[in-house]
Design goal:
Elements: H1 5-46, H2 50-64, H3 67-79, H4 85-106, H5 111-127, H6 131-157, H7 164-171, H8 178-195, H9 198-210, H10 216-229, H11 231-237, H12 243-263, H13 267-277, E1 289-291, E2 294-296, H14 299-319, H15 323-331, H16 358-384, H17 393-412, H18 421-453, H19 461-475, H20 499-507, H21 515-544, H22 547-568
Antiparallel strand pairs: 1-2
Helix pairs in contact: 1-2, 1-6, 1-9, 2-4, 3-4, 3-11, 3-12, 4-12, 4-14, 4-15, 5-6, 6-9, 8-10, 9-10, 9-14, 10-12, 10-14, 11-12, 12-14, 12-15, 16-17, 16-18, 16-19, 17-18, 18-21, 19-21, 20-21
Length: about 575
C-alpha cells in the first residue's frame, strides 16, 4: 500500500504533537490558576529543611504538572529572598521526582477516550460561569488532549516503519553501544531544550516506541536526555535575576548532569533491571500486540515512564546527602565581597530545641530581635552610600521581613496554657517589641529608598545629612553598640534640630532646590519622624516589664521542678 506522506504522516504527527503540547499547556495553566499562589505560599513555608524541600518540590510539581514551572517558581522565590539557596536545591530535586508522575500518566492507555473527554470538558469550559469551574475544566481538557495527541502521533508515526529510508536513518539512533547511547541522550537533550518541555519530548518518544519506530531501549535512552535538556529553561529564567537565583538554576543543571553522567555507565545494567521489573507491569515491552491488524508496542510508554521515575528517585537519593556541598560550591560562583554581608533572612539564635525552655528561649528572642534591629540600622548605611552596605534596599528589606515573621511565630509558640501570668505578659511584650521593630525597619527602609532614588543639590544635601545624623543619634537609645559614625562634637554636646526646623529649612530652599528634591526631603522627614516615635516606643516597651526578674523566677521554677522530679519521680501536688 502506497503511503501518502502528507496525509498519513505529517498531518497526524504535527497535529498530534500540537494537540499534545496544547494539552500540557491547558493542564498546567488550569491547575496553576487554581493553586499556584497557594503553592507558592506553601513552598515558602514548607521549604525549611532539605527533607521538607524535597517533599514540597515533589508534591507541588506533582500537582501543577510542570517541573519547568516549578523550577522557574523556585528561582523567582530565591530571587525575592523568600527561599534560601540550600532549601531551593532540595526543592529542585523534589521537582524532578514530581514531574515523573506526569510521565506515568502519559503512559496510560487512554488515547481513544481523549477526544470525547476533551470535547466534554471543552463544553463545560465554554458554558461555565464560575472561574473556578472553568479552570478545573481547562485542566481536565488539557489532560484529555494529552492522550488524544499522543494517540494521533502514534498512528501517524506507525507508517514510517514501511519507509526503508527512515528506518535506515533511525537505525543510527539505536542505543546499542555507549557511543550511540550518548548520541541519543544528546539529541533528546537538544530537542527538549528547543521545545522547553521534557514531557513533550517523552511523549514523542513514547509515540515512536509504541509505533515500533524506536526499540524500547532507545526510547528509554531518549527519556534520559529529556531530563538533561529540561534544565535549559531554568537557566534562561535566571539570566536577569540575582546571583542566588542563578545559583538555584545552576543547581538544577548540575544535579541533572551529574545524574546522567552516573547513570550512563550503568545504563545497560539498569535496562536489565527494568526488563525484570516489567513482568509486574505487563510483560516484555519488546513484544508486539496486534491492534486492528497492525503491530503496536503498548508497553514501551510504560517502560519509559517507569525508567524516568526511577532515574529521578535514584538521582535524588544519591545526591541528597551532598546538598551542603552543592550549596558551598555554588555559593562561590560569581561571588563578590558584597555577598559576604550577613544573610538576615535566616534566624541565627532561634533554636527550636529551646521552645520548651522559657528561661533560655526568651534571651534567644531578645538576641534575634536585636539582630533584626541591627539589620534595620543598616538602611542608614545604605542611605549614606557605604560600600559595605547591601546594594539593594528592597532586597535587604525582604530579608528583614522574613526574619520579622520568624521572630513573631517563634515567640507566639512559647505561649502555653500552663504558663504563669508574668511569663505570658513577657511574651506579649516581646511580640509587641518585635512588631515595633518591624515597623521601625520599614520606616528606615523608606528613608534609604528615598535617599537612593533622588540626586540632591548642594543646598539640599546638608539637610539630608543632618536628618540622617539625627536618626543615627536617636537610634543609639535602643542600639548603643551599632557601629555608625560618631558625631563630630564631644559626647553630650551634639544637638540636632527638630524635624519642624528641618522642614522649615526645606521649604525655604525656594529656587535653590527643585520641587522633586523638596518633596523627597519632606517625605524623608516624615519617615524619620515615624522612626523616632517607634524608637521611643521600643525603649518604653523594654522597660514596661521587668524581664530579668521574670526570667529569674522562670529559671527558679524550672530548677525546683527538676529537683522534685529527681527526688520523687513526680511533681507532688498537695492533697485537698
Amino acid at each position: 500500500m502506497e503511503i501518502d506522506i502528507f496525509k498519513d504522516i505529517l498531518v497526524p504527527v504535527i497535529g498530534g504533537l500540537g494537540i499534545f503540547m496544547l494539552g500540557l499547556e491547558f493542564m498546567a495553566n488550569g491547575i496553576q490558576a487554581l493553586s499556584v499562589n497557594k503553592m507558592r505560599a506553601f513552598l515558602a513555608r514548607a521549604a525549611g529543611t532539605p527533607i521538607k524541600g524535597v517533599l514540597a518540590g515533589t508534591f507541588i510539581t506533582g500537582v501543577i504538572q510542570s517541573s519547568t514551572a516549578m523550577t522557574v517558581m523556585v528561582v523567582g522565590l530565591v530571587n525575592a529572598g523568600v527561599v534560601g539557596l540550600r532549601p531551593a536545591i532540595s526543592v529542585i530535586m523534589g521537582a524532578n521526582i514530581g514531574t515523573t508522575l506526569g510521565n506515568g500518566l502519559i503512559a496510560l492507555p487512554l488515547g481513544p477516550l481523549g477526544l470525547i473527554l476533551g470535547g466534554i470538558f471543552a463544553l463545560i469550559y465554554c458554558f461555565a460561569k464560575s472561574e473556578k469551574v472553568r479552570n478545573i475544566a481547562l485542566a481536565c481538557m488539557g489532560f484529555a488532549l494529552i492522550f488524544y495527541g499522543l494517540n494521533l502521533m502514534t498512528g501517524g508515526l506507525r507508517p514510517l516503519r514501511n519507509l526503508p529510508e527512515v528506518m535506515e536513518l533511525l537505525q543510527t539512533l539505536k542505543a546499542d553501544s555507549y557511543f550511540n547511547l550518548i548520541k541519543c541522550v544528546l539529541i533528546a537533550a537538544g530537542v527538549t531544550a528547543m521545545i522547553h518541555s521534557s514531557s513533550a519530548t517523552i511523549g514523542i518518544v513514547m509515540g515512536l516506541g509504541a509505533a515500533g519506530i524506536l526499540d524500547w531501549t532507545t526510547a528509554v535512552a531518549f527519556s534520559l536526555g529529556a531530563d538533561l535538556g529540561t534544565t535549559i529553561t531554568s537557566w534562561m529564567a535566571s539570566l536577569n535575576l540575582s546571583k542566588n537565583a542563578k545559583r538555584a538554576a545552576y543547581a538544577h543543571i548540575s544535579f541533572n548532569i551529574i545524574g546522567v553522567c552516573i547513570t550512563v555507565p550503568l545504563f545497560f545494567v539498569s535496562i536489565g533491571v527494568l526488563e525484570w521489573a516489567m513482568q509486574w507491569f505487563g510483560g516484555d515491552p519488546a513484544v508486539a500486540v496486534m491492534v486492528d491488524g497492525k503491530e503496536t508496542f503498548p508497553l514501551v510508554p510504560v517502560a519509559v515512564g517507569l525508567y524516568s521515575t526511577f532515574f529521578n528517585i535514584f538521582n535524588t537519593l544519591l545526591l541528597f546527602p551532598f546538598i551542603g556541598v552543592f550549596e558551598r560550591v555554588l555559593s562561590r560562583v560569581g561571588r563578590t565581597d558584597a555577598e559576604d554581608i550577613e544573610d538576615y533572612s535566616t534566624p541565627r539564635f532561634l533554636d527550636g530545641k529551646l521552645s520548651n525552655d522559657f528561661a533560655r528561649a526568651v534571651p534567644a528572642i531578645q538576641q534575634e530581635t536585636q539582630r533584626h534591629l541591627q539589620a534595620g540600622a543598616m538602611f542608614l548605611d545604605i542611605a549614606r552610600g557605604d560600600k559595605k552596605a547591601p546594594s539593594d534596599p528592597g532586597e535587604h528589606y525582604l530579608a528583614t521581613d522574613i526574619l520579622s515573621r520568624d521572630i513573631r511565630n517563634y515567640t507566639a509558640n512559647l505561649m502555653k496554657e500552663d504558663l504563669p501570668y508574668d511569663q505570658l505578659d513577657l511574651i506579649a511584650s516581646l511580640i509587641e517589641e518585635a512588631d515595633f521593630t518591624a515597623a521601625l525597619t520599614e520606616s528606615m527602609h523608606q528613608v534609604a529608598r528615598r535617599v537612593k532614588r533622588e540626586k540632591f543639590g548642594s543646598q539640599a544635601q546638608p539637610i539630608v545629612d543632618t536628618a540622617l545624623n539625627k536618626l543615627d543619634a536617636s537610634l543609639r537609645a535602643i542600639l548603643p553598640t551599632y557601629g555608625l559614625a560618631d558625631p563630630q562634637m564631644p559626647a553630650g554636646h551634639a544637638n540636632y534640630p527638630e524635624v519642624e526646623e528641618l522642614r522649615a529649612r526645606t521649604l525655604s530652599l525656594g529656587p535653590n532646590a527643585g520641587a522633586a528634591e523638596r518633596g523627597t526631603i519632606l517625605a524623608l522627614l516624615g519617615s524619620i519622624e515615624r522612626a523616632e516615635i517607634l524608637i521611643r516606643r521600643i525603649d518604653a516597651e523594654r522597660k514596661s516589664v521587668n524581664r530579668q526578674s521574670v526570667l529569674s523566677r522562670a529559671a527558679s521554677r524550672k530548677e525546683n521542678r527538676e529537683q522534685r522530679m529527681d527526688e520523687g519521680g513526680f511533681s507532688p501536688v498537695p492533697a485537698e
